[in-house]
Specification:
mainly alpha, Four Helix Bundle (Hemerythrin (Met), subunit A), globular
Length: 245
Amino acid sequence: MHHGLLRNSLACILPAGLTVGVIAQLCTLRLGLEPAYAAKAVVVFAAGAAMVLIGLPRHHPFGAFGPANQVTVGRGMLVALLAGLIGERTDTGAPALAVILATSVAVLDGTDGWLARRTGMSSAFGARFDMETDAALIMVLALLTWLSGKAGPWVLASGLLRYLFVVCGALLPWLRRPLPPSERRKTVAVVQMVTLIVALAPVIPVPVSGAVALLGLAALTLSFLLDIVWLVQNASQVHPSVSPQ
């Protein structure tokens, strides 16, 4: 990795990691969370940061980390704080904090892509970074929704479908083929985030929360099926690379 790029990326990532620890500690004191909450959030952020640094040399074509990736790091901070809530008691401020954190990540979704285009720093790295952040958010939300009793274990499929698709792609090369641009795919991703956030909200009763989560899962499943059908129909053709599911 170019030393300038490494320094530039660490100048963003290291303060972000420190911020995660500080915010998590403050939340622990104010919201009655378990003492291990801060450690869990920092470990999750550190794991994500390590993957980012590993992917930089191969996929990031610019000498600077870039404002778009900085925003995605900020979103990753919020996802790490959200992931730290896994295992926390629901009779604390954890459920409300989860909704606030998840909503903030969802609201910022798309900002990093807009900045990348605006600054002329779009790259495969940035697209993948953004996508993995979204996937992590959905997986954590699904786990929290299940663990809080707001939906059954089936809700985990909301987060696992994308990873299952990746695993199947490793076994079936035609599943790894690039997909064409799709507003439907982007819209469904947002719908999935919103339905899980609504389902997780403390003010939403259990029967309603399950129905809302099921609606999001149905939309996501249909979206994956449509993509798989397209891949089957175009298995023998070559198409330009675009953002994946």
